[in-house]
């Protein structure tokens, strides 16, 4: 490779957990630095750069000033990667969009202080609702191995693809006992795999933190819910947790 | 075929001895929650031979879900090295329908271009079967499996209460038993047959195996495919748990330093949306209904036309694993029969 791509990491509204996933790559971080030159990454280093080949953007967009900053990043970078579910779909932050008024949201969270200027907010958006996004790395948090695979493939000039099959595949390969058989409703049949079925393997139902497959069979899910006596409202609450409904990201 | 017997106690000590000899990996059926799986045995006490069905069939030992085929250095011609893992494995407690399925896979992987990775693992395996001892509501093997399981089994166990009758099917099986406390069989063939067929199937294929292929062909354009396709999640559960499904994908993984690559083989399945995705974004089985029909035709027509045996062994795993409750082949036949 002639020259290492210049990579920068940015954050918007989120818990910064996906940045931590990158910072926690342990010995792989050394190899990663052989592959890319990290020119800006507030959580782990000082310094800023003017231009980047790849901008990794974490977090969701929740106020006007975020938009301007994100557009500026877009202009400076050849590629923009939305990493983590907040950037991909708004993530957990998008829950607030279920409220009819942002004032109610602020009051619920901040009480009497809710009118302070710096707490101003608008309905949450994924970053592709503001700028064009070239690549998505979904998940809450991201899967470190998937992140590394994406970076490698970008460096090799390949177009990285996300798995487009449901989590059920990974459960079957692990010989997990299906949670439906245990009377637990699980979003596995709709959710995008790639996590190694981490939650169901540990007894928790899948909540589709990586979004859904490209063509989820929602009607089939309705039939299953009827069969197990669950309401659409119950499943909507679960699937809305990570802001993946109704949009499906490719 | 020799027929011998052994007390259960002696059989278990024999298994323990084989485990401690460490000449081969010893795998058996063990309990996992309220289900069963094939897994490595630490001691014969882990064996649960009175099982209904295992989550995955034993095909995972010959065609692992993920297998490294070769290693290479990127951009360096002739740098590849084949990666072989043909360690011997002994599998204890395979039901006859799973053995019949292994026979199907042996045929598929030795026909035309031989898959040496699969076939060498099969060569180094020893298969000890057992006739089912527990009822399973989805099973309909008796209506679809003939005696092809004898072509791959090395030994077959018949549970006689305190003892096992052992059908010594192959020379390899005979040699394997050397040094065990075998005795002369004194059960009549009738008694043995009764024990072998003690567990009856609740279900059977709604049409005869001999006409199933032709029956389906006549119904290629039937509404059944859309009816079930609409309910399908395309989650692949039916094909991954299927003992006769052997489809795979091959891909390359490069390490983070971009200096070493691996070519890997991973399970794939025709019910997944991207299975038939090709260059330029074309997908020649885009609709769920087409995929659902393809899978059924493969079991009932394409494989039998090629290999003479029905492509489904009636284990019932797909019917059980399917969240939408549509995958059991019997449902398809029933629906067609009821909606002519």
Q: Can you offer a commentary on this structure?
A:
The complex is a heterodimer of chains A (250) and B (340). Chain A is of the alpha/beta class. Helices cover 33% and strands 11% of the residues of chain A. Chain A has 2 domains: 6-155, NADH:ubiquinone oxidoreductase-like, 20kDa subunit (Rossmann fold, 3-Layer(aba) Sandwich), CATH 3.40.50.700; 168-242, no CATH class. Chain A has helices spanning 17-23, 27-35, 64-76, 85-89, 102-110, 144-155, 168-173, 198-201, 218-227, 232-239; strands spanning 6-11, 37-41, 52-58, 77-83, 135-137. Chain A is globular and about 55 Å long. Chain A starts with 5 loop residues before the first strand and ends in an 11-residue tail after the last helix. Mean pLDDT of chain A is 91; it is low at 246-250. Chain B has 2 domains: 2-68 and 85-196, no CATH class; 209-246 and 269-338, no CATH class. Chain B contains 11 helices and 12 strands. Chain B is globular. At the A-B interface, helix 2, helix 6, helix 7 and helix 9 of A face loops of B.
List the helices and strands and how they pair.
The complex is a heterodimer of chains A (250) and B (340).
Chain A: E1 6-11, H1 17-23, H2 27-35, E2 37-41, E3 52-58, H3 64-76, E4 77-83, H4 85-89, H5 102-110, E5 135-137, H6 144-155, H7 168-173, H8 198-201, H9 218-227, H10 232-239
Parallel strand pairs in A: 1-2, 1-3, 3-4, 4-5
Chain B: E1 2-7, H1 8-21, E2 25-32, E3 35-40, E4 66-72, E5 81-82, E6 89-94, H2 96-110, H3 116-123, E7 125-130, E8 155-159, E9 163-168, H4 171-176, E10 183-184, H5 189-196, H6 209-218, H7 224-229, H8 237-240, E11 248-254, E12 261-267, H9 288-307, H10 317-321, H11 329-338
Helix pairs in contact in B: 6-9
The helicity of chain A comes to 25-40%
User: Could you say how many structural domains of chain A there are in total?
Assistant: 2
Overall SS class of chain A: alpha/beta
Kindly report the oligomeric state of this protein: heterodimer
DSSP, total strands of chain B: 12
Strand content of chain B: 15-25%
CA-based shape of chain A = globular
Number of helices of chain B: 11
How many DSSP-defined strands of chain A?
5
- Give the overall pLDDT of chain A as a whole number: 91
Beta fraction of chain A: 5-15%
């Amino acid at each position: 490779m002639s020259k290492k791509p210049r990579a920068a990491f940015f954050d918007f509204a989120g818990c910064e957990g996906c940045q931590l996933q990158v910072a926690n790559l342990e010995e792989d971080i050394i190899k990663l630095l052989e592959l890319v030159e990290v020119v800006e990454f507030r959580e782990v280093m000082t310094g800023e750069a003017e231009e980047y080949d790849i901008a990794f953007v974490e977090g969701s967009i929740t106020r006007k000033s975020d938009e301007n900053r994100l557009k500026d990043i877009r202009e400076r970078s050849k590629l923009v990667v939305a990493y983590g579910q907040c950037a991909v779909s708004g993530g957990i932050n998008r829950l607030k969009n279920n409220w009819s008024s942002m004032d109610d949201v602020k009051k619920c969270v901040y009480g009497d202080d809710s009118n302070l200027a710096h707490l101003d907010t608008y309905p949450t958006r994924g970053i592709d609702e503001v700028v064009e996004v070239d690549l998505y790395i979904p998940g809450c948090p991201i899967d470190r191995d998937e992140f590394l695979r994406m970076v490698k493939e970008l460096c090799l000039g390949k177009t990285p693809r996300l798995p487009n099959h449901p989590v059920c595949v990974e459960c079957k390969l692990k010989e997990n006992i299906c949670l439906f058989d245990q009377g637990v409703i699980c979003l596995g049949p709709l959710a995008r795999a790639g996590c190694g079925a981490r939650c169901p393997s540990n007894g928790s139902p899948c909540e589709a933190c990586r979004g859904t497959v490209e063509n989820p069979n929602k009607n089939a899910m309705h039939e299953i819910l009827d069969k197990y006596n669950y309401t659409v409202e119950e499943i909507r609450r679960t699937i809305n947790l990570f802001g993946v409904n109704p949009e499906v990201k490719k | 075929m020799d027929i011998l017997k052994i007390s259960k106690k002696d059989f278990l000590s024999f298994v323990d001895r084989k485990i401690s000899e460490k000449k081969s990996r010893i795998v058996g059926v063990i309990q996992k929650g309220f289900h069963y799986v094939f897994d490595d045995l630490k001691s014969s006490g882990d064996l649960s031979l009175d099982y209904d069905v295992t989550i995955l069939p034993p095909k995972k030992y010959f065609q692992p879900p993920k297998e490294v085929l070769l290693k290479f250095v990127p951009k360096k011609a002739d740098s590849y090295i084949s990666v072989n893992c043909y360690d011997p494995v002994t599998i204890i407690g395979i039901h006859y329908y799973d053995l019949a399925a292994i026979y199907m896979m042996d045929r598929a992987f030795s026909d035309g271009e031989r898959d040496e990775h699969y076939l060498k693992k099969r060569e180094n395996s020893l298969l000890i079967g057992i006739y089912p001892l527990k009822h399973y509501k989805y099973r309909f093997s008796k209506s679809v499996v003939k005696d092809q399981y004898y072509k791959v089994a090395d030994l077959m166990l018949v549970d006689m209460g305190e003892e096992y009758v052992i059908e010594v099917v192959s020379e390899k099986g005979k040699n394997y038993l050397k040094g065990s406390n075998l005795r002369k069989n004194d059960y009549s063939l009738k008694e043995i047959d009764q024990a072998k067929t003690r567990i009856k199937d609740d279900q059977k294929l709604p049409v005869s195996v001999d006409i199933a292929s032709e029956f389906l062909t006549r119904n290629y354009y039937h509404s059944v495919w859309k009816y079930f396709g609409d309910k399908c999640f395309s989650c692949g559960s039916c094909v991954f748990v299927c003992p006769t499904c052997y489809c795979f994908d091959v891909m390359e993984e490069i390490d983070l330093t971009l200096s070493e690559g691996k070519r890997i083989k991973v399970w794939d399945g025709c019910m997944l949306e991207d299975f038939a995705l090709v260059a330029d974004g074309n997908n020649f089985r885009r609709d769920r209904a087409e995929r659902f029909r393809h899978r059924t035709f493969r079991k009932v027509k394409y494989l039998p036309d090629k290999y003479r045996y029905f492509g489904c062994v009636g284990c019932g795993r797909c019917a059980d694993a399917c969240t939408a409750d549509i995958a059991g082949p019997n449902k398809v036949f029933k629906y067609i029969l009821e909606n002519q």
